[in-house]
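Researcher: Let's do a round of design. I'm pasting the structure tokens now; please hold your answer until I've finished.
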């Protein structure tokens, strides 16, 4: 399915527009996998996958990184009701050693940047040798926080719209869509 292509009839009630088609996503993820493989060859990096939204991206990316690496899965929840505090609840890191490791945070989307900022601070504090980030999507938004760390690899920059598919959900639904689409406003 190409970008701007027709939304499959089954989902046309919920998705207004295909932003990124599956072929376009696949090509970009393959290219980024090669970039990661080159950057981390011989370093056995840890890909720290932020669930749930990144699960499809991470599965495709990992298979495109043709050098030894490990995968670890964490969860991060930002307190939407308390955005100004910048508080993000991270689980899955207890008892994990990242000391001296090269870590790549794998995110689905950077919006305000709160989640990424909190995650990278936390991982740096765990003694990682290096911390970089890769995200499938980065929104163009005036809400981006100034403390957002630089994200080394951005697969796609998208407009400030709520998107679903390829791992991203609306109310836990639509993660399975093979494309990234814009939610139709109810
Ligand atoms: P922040 O603001 O911390 O947001 O950068 C990151 C998290 O917010 C969620 N998010 C979205 N989820 N469609 C989604 O399905 C979207 O358009 C969207 N924008 C933000 C997501 O959980 C992400 O990790
Ligand atoms: Mg979500």
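Researcher: That's everything. Go ahead.
Model: Designed sequence:
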């Amino acid at each position: 399915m190409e970008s701007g292509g027709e939304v499959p009839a089954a989902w046309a009630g919920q998705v207004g527009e295909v932003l990124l088609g599956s072929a376009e996503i696949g090509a970009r993820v393959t290219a980024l996998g090669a970039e990661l493989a080159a950057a981390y060859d011989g370093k056995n990096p840890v890909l720290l996958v932020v669930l749930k939204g990144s699960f499809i991206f991470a599965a495709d990316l990992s298979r495109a990184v043709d050098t030894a690496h490990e995968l670890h899965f964490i969860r991060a929840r930002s307190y939407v009701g308390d955005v100004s505090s910048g508080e993000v609840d991270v689980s899955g890191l207890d008892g994990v050693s990242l000391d001296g490791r090269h870590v790549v945070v794998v995110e689905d989307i950077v919006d305000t940047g709160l989640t990424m900022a909190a995650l990278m601070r936390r991982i740096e504090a765990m003694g990682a040798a290096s911390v970089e980030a890769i995200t499938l999507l980065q929104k163009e938004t005036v809400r981006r926080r100034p403390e957002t760390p630089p994200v080394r690899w951005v697969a796609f920059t998208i407009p400030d719209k709520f998107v679903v598919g390829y791992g991203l959900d609306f109310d836990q639904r639509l993660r399975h869509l093979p494309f990234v689409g814009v939610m139709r406003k109810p």
